[in-house]
Amino acid sequence: MERAKRQMRTTSKVWGKVIAVSSFIAMFLVSVVIRCTGVLYVSWQTSFDSTAAQTAAIASIITSSSYCTSIFAGVFCNRYGCRFTCILGGVLTFFPILMSFWATSLWSMYAVAVFTGVGTSFSFLASNVVLAEYFKTYYAIVSGITMAGGSTNMIVFPPLLRLLLDAYGWRGAMLVTSAICANLCVVGALYRPLRHTPRRPTIVTKSTGNIGISPNSNTCSNPPDSHVQKGPTTSEGKCVTSTASLRRVFSALRLGLLVKSYRFSLLCLTSIQLQMTYSCASVFLVPRAKFSGTDDMKASFLLSIFGFGSLISRVASGFFVTRKTPVEALNTFSFVLCCVGLLSSQAETYESFAASACFLGMGTGANKVWSNILIRKLLGLPRVASGQAIHLLLCGVGDLIGPIVAGLLYDSTGSFGTVFYVLAGLVAAAALQMLLMPMLRRIEPGVAEKEETSTGSVS
């Protein structure tokens, strides 16, 4: 028995390296579509004769649908495993991109954007969950390295996409991109399940008025001592059932965390503002540089500089957290970096655009890491998954409205400078809002701290 356990641990340790490399590749492939649409922005606008807001909606739909469907991706991971979820995400990613080759209207591109966003969400979440299954002690280090795959993509892929665009046009470039994204299916096949944990059915007492649902069957299970009244269903019974179902959904998503922890609500609010800036910068930075007279190839390299700054900050941010510096202060500093980056672009020279891309990449990349640490600090370990789901869902809202509002602002003013000034003000407001964290801490100790006061600290 002990020999079998040792052999299993050895096999898992060896296969864990394969999982880490596969997850890094998956993060790279997921970011192919999400953050490189700025290179194709002008081509789409010219091909479909659309406004700035209509064209920018393609990128916002991809990212927002990716964020908003993360809850469903979690259901698939729990039900069918990471391997199936990642392969399904790969299919949902590459097939719509392949179909965009025959797109004849902007509405066709919107449909492509929706399904592509769903696919990237499934693959992204599955790649994160499989790491948590295989790694415990070194999970933070491995997770940081694999998350850098998205930043690596922003360095490597925009110039490649520019070469494909010049050689084959935007339709041919999308065709080649679909073939690259199809490798998500290959990566997902490597996500071998580590172990199978049988699921226990939900047990609900009679006093709650709820009906227990067994996850392994499609029938409802009642407590043994309950008496189910047979006969026609009344309107009152339907109302009680609907209320109980809504209560179970609300409880499963743990949306009450937004009410119980004011600091978590403030973090989500500032994340929405930063996500609006992040999505707008990745879409409008390249077109702004082009309209300022920058060469097309040099303008495409701005996204690579953006990704390089994000890569450095994601790796280095962990070293700052290990010191005695409050995470709230570090998170505020990331907003200041983004504000400086947005204001740097107002000089409208290539050097200023490069500095803007670097500062924006560093600010947004570090914020991703520090926000996750803040969620763990404010909500505690048992609620990290629910907090991440709520956080991603609200970030999707910012990702959806950001490029659309920025596009409308550009259509009304005709100036990219105005758009970037408004974004800088939005991020500056988020930095000021983070200063409210100490005051909110006096009002409520936080969900995690309430539990730790009575049950002991969480290691």
TrEMBL record:
Classification via SUPFAM superfamilies: MFS general substrate transporter
GO cellular component, one term: membrane
Annotated region (Disordered), positions in chain: 215-236
GO molecular function: monocarboxylic acid transmembrane transporter activity
PROSITE patterns noted in UniProt: MFS
Chief subcellular location: membrane
Protein topology in the membrane: Multi-pass membrane protein
Protein name in UniProt: Major facilitator superfamily (MFS) profile domain-containing protein
The organism of origin for this protein: Patiria miniata (Bat star)
